[in-house]
């Protein structure tokens, strides 16, 4: 359960510093995780980004202060991180559906986003099909783009990248090149060579042994023990559902944790909307330290 405690410490850190400037590096450090893996885990478990959580919590507290005090609206705006009353009003209306002035005079309903407490589901009602695979290092070829986690650029940019490769024929090329043990086209998240912690590399690639084809790049995937999870159903819902199960149910009840090396999503060339679509998630593993099984 160590990772749950680490995630909760990061949330507690956010709450304790809501009125201060904080960086995603500071928050991830509390969870003892890389920025990318912390943000990915947070998003999977909460269905929101770290930035969204901070923004929602600040505007929730701002609404409470507007309703319960006579403090000036401009002072409240500055207190919760907004440089102008106009930017505060715009953000406030987006969350609550009313203006700060209307909230002051109790004209309308408010949306309250409460402090998060991480609770892990260990229902086990829906079985998860997976296998453990040991593999030596292997090579993938494909295209690489660098994304930033700032302002959720990655969440907007990655779907656009997939649209691009589907339209320009890169997807078909990768399927034709595939000659490795993993059958399909891969979405690969990997650490960037840049020193900035808000950046990561995203690859659309395929396993391939041979000379790198023109126009593509090569990524070496290190030797690892992998958990390979089956995913059944249409995209993107089926993939998102299994990711949630992995973090909510599988990791807490197993002696493994994420190894921090590239993780893979494996896609077939079948209809992505098909109820019978088969996909996979490959997660590199390492043994947890001082693991105690949940009884």
From TrEMBL:
Q: Which Gene3D superfamilies match?
A: Homeodomain-like (1.10.10.60), Regulatory factor, effector binding domain (3.20.80.10)
Q: Which GO terms describe its molecular function?
A: DNA-binding transcription factor activity; sequence-specific DNA binding
Q: Is DNA-binding one of the keywords?
A: yes
Q: Respond yes or no to whether keyword Glycosyltransferase is given for this record.
A: no
Q: Which domain of life is it from?
A: Bacteria
UniProt xrefs under SUPFAM superfamilies = Homeodomain-like, Probable bacterial effector-binding domain
Keywords (alphabetical) are:
DNA-binding, Transcription, Transcription regulation
Q: Which residues form the HTH araC/xylS-type domain?
A: 8-106
The record's annotation in InterPro entries points to: AraC_E-bd, Cass2, Homeodomain-like_sf, HTH_AraC, HTH_AraC-typ_CS, MarA-like, PH_domain, Reg_factor_effector_dom_sf
Q: Which residues form the signal peptide?
A: none
Taking every annotated instance into account, which residue ranges of this chain make up the domain PH? 1-12
Record-given protein name = AraC family transcriptional regulator
**UniProt organism field:** Rummeliibacillus stabekisii
